[in-house]
Amino acid sequence: MRLVVVGNGMAGARLVEEVRARDPRMPITVFGAERSRPYNRVLLSNVLAGTARPDQVRLVTPGWYAEHDVTAVLGTEIVAVDRDAKEVVAADGRREPYDALVLATGSEAVVPPIPGVERALAFRTLDDCRAILAAAATARRAVVVGGGLLGVEAARGLAGRGLPVTLLHLADHLMDRQLDPEAGQVLGQTLAGLGVRIKTGVTVVEVLGGAGNRPAGVRLADGEIVDGELVVLACGVRPVTGLAAASGLKVGRGIVVDDELRTSDPAIRAIGECAEHDGTVYGLVAPAWEQAAVVADLITGYRTGSRYRGSRPVTRLKAKSVELAAMGETHVDETTDSGAEVVRFSHRARGTYHKLVIRDDRLVGAILVGETPVVGTLTQLFDRGGRPLPGDRAGLLFPGVTGPPVADSPVRMPDSARVCRCNDVTKGRIRACWESGARDVEAVAAVTRATTGCGTCREAVEGVIGWLREQEGATA
Amino acid sequence: MAKPLGTTIGSMPITSHPTTEHVKAGTATHCPYCALQCGMIVAADEADGVVRNVSITPRRDIPANAGGLCQKGWTAGELLTNGERLTTPLVDGRPATWEEALDHAASRIAAIRAEHGPDAVAVFGGGGLTNEKAYLLGKFARVAVGTSQIDYNGRFCMSSAAAASIRAFGMDRGMPFPITDLAEADAVLIAGGNMAETMPPFIRHLTLMRERGGGLIVADPRRTPTAAAADLHLQITPGTDLALALGLLHLAIAEGYVDDDYIAARTTGFDAVRTSVSAWWPERVERITGVPVALMRETVRLLGTARRAMVLTGRGVEQHAKGTDTVTAFINLALALGLPGTEGSGYACITGQGNGQGGREHGQKADQLPGYRRIDDPAARAHVASVWGVDPAALPGPGRSAYELLDALGTRDGPRALLLFGSNPLVSAPHVGRVIDRLASLDLLVVCDIVLSETAAAADVVLPTTQWAEETGTMTNLEGRVLLRRRSVAAPSGVRSDLAVLSGLAARLGHPRGFPDDPEEVFEELRRASAGGPADYSGITYERIAEEGGVFWPCPSEDHPGTPRPFLDRFATPDGRARFTPVAHRPPAEDIDEDYPLYLTTGRVLAQYQSGAQTRRIAPLTEAAPEAFVELHPDLAERIGVADGERLQVISRRGSASGVARLNSTIRADTVFMPFHYAAEGRANLLTNTALDPISRMPEFKVCAVRLEKAA
Fold it and tell me: What is the CATH number of the domain that holds B375?
């Protein structure tokens, strides 16, 4: 079994690793159009923000391919698949035979067809990132076109570097695919506080030229000009399906695959952002890696029953001082959707907006803007899907609010309250000790051994003794 | 500002809150229970060989407890006098003389060995045995019986941390610095440990640290008393600690806390680890662990900005089928921050059992010879064989690991006889239902114990032995400090020491010499056997321990001061550098699903110890912690319609156990907790999973899938 992988991004590289982990011998050849070794695209926003260096985002060490007997052909594009001969054809004419072929061609940035767009920089690859950083070093202002996840992260990252940034978005609120209007507004308000100027409901019609080949800004549909010597495009991505389509594979929005990630040619599979499973093209890493694991199971015969049944994507913004998570159904409005139960907590002044969408007692969607300790728990509740929620919905957002009261003063503490855990001493025993003459901690410790274990109850014991002393004073 | 380290070792009190209990004249010794080995004075009245009025007071000259004791320590004397002791050997349940019992056991062993070969006889030890017993037990198995089939319950305890430490540092001294260093730290991360309940006086060191302004971080699925006292509690999903450690390292790199100079000078392999954790960005880890990114970020900030910091692991992260890799991931974090081998900082495993450290060094482990030597190392075999006066070729090779050994008992290729010392696997082994069957299928089960434990009750031959205060021996505490636990009261008539049992059995198996029953004589031989090994005790004597309040190994000669901090100059690897090893997270061996929708995690309560064989026989402890319980979240209780105090049945794929419902709104709603100390239907280990770590062979005690039902 010879495996050929086309695409050496996060999906392709992961697949190679997963296959090698299951089968140390299968011949593997991986083709990558980019020269660089695979890197972690998720961290590009951190590179832009300066919290990761470009050399810290690689996913494979330099010697990995040689050590694991994998043939990596980097900087070489595959231009055709000869399905009859079962060979892929590279741009340089090289042909590579396969028994199993996996397409992991990913997606590419959408570049709007507007005048001057060549002066703008897309934000998609590590090279893009380097180019943006180089331009940012000399630009006085930046414009980010597109207020989706990537655009927000780019704008935040550039603003964090001290560059005045304007974020332009076509829809009426930011991240409109993931967020409802109020969440989008709260996010916008938070970003504004961090130095990002935001304009929503605007269309960019031209990128204006400035000195050299640099941009000077953009023109909006209403004629307004937004200045910027750096224009970053974050207008979304589209699956790269040209090779698949030209090879006669069935292509919808992405390359159509089944639960075994097979395309219309069973010898060819597709994974990651180029694949369309059950009508969905995922733009996140987690589904791609789940798909890679299933394909590795099947190709190596490690787990022949392995199937991909779709993912429950969670969007988690990576931007300093902006906490945001969104998952599942988020646009639900209970006034028009009687099957849904919506729980909301909104506190705009603090940049907080939390929304839970519940159906049949299950969490099916959530938006969490602003820091919250429950983000992990709620994500897991959404992930697991099947677990019914407690009747007390408030506790989901504010755990502990409905918990039992903790007696923190000796007055409110019942006699049965355990004061010293290490030696199992209750308030009642300390009181009894007091009544038989013990007047300080040492005397109480000598009888009850309270405070002699971990020692942390000393203050509590002192508190009880002090309170007993006061009581005595009061009744004397 | 910070006082020079090293000056606090030995006898300096660490607490400003001494107790005022009157100290009776008595014997300076140590507690029978956990690896803290608190110093205590034991005094008693003796008349006509009967011990009465035992009193226990804490010692202040032992840094580990410095005047503190928990309820277990204070009440440890009760078992010396309360009539629960075994004082007569039993053969087939009937009282017998020692001669009869030993003759019977030895002749059956000899017969089984003659018919089926030496590996048909197995030996099982414990991490509570003194160094002398652990040593002699290993020698007894390999020389007197000739079997490779020996292992011990420490496999269920620290084996994952031990394997990870050896992989990274070339040596496993659980805590490679004095415990008093903790008080000087600026930040401490405890991953999967609950010392406030398992070894309370340990907390005193952390309290001092926090009083100085240091930060405490605890990772635990439960809000234990330790977690509740911390500055940060990372309330992790059971079975996901490895992902947490990877996420923390990812953040440490991203936020610039990595100590590049240290990495360049003292380690190898960081490049591959840095690359591998690139795949564990915090938002991904949050989804797996349930720990918010903000808390991970704060954890890394506390550790990364501390001048002195420590990463500690406990059973919570170690008792998993990936325990070795999890500890490795925490060690990688510590190494990246430049902590191990740096004075005042470091990584440590918090050893659990009383002699968990010494017990894993001297040869009761399947793959090991005394001095922490490997049994498959020809040089080690030659050295030990010369001390034992046997041909190296006659020494058996490595045998089965603890659970694999128990699992094989009475099977076609497995042992047919088992000798058990210092362990109670019918409560403490995973999937205990299976172990019950295995023990029942043996031709011979010999159990040495001080009380009729659940396992002793199932034995063909029961040999009643002396306990801690009735015998002398050395214990190596969690710091790697070798301590002297002295005989302080007379033993009841009718009992013999474990050493005497081994001596008597060895003589009957044709080895009248080489198995002395005097502990100091055994220790002298242990010194020679350990000489030159990683755990070198050759410079340690009973006199030195008594004078110095303990001696840190390695100690290769009598004029050597001992080694409080073994990694300051170099690690114990061939090139002296610590080794980074890339590891990846994987889910628990048994994850939750529709049929078994909850995680079960197990652990300890303050007033009980291990299988409870000792502590369940002490009235104040039983009063404080009388029975098995099931801790669960009120939301979960509401769903199954159970109220606090009602009885619950917990069911896994392997069995069913029961306990009283204890509602607690601080536990994760997808997790239930049971303590593992109880017998009969309350045995948490009826439920636990036997999936083993591929390196340490540790079973997955800490997470399995269960469902709950109201008990009928």
Answer: 3.40.50.740
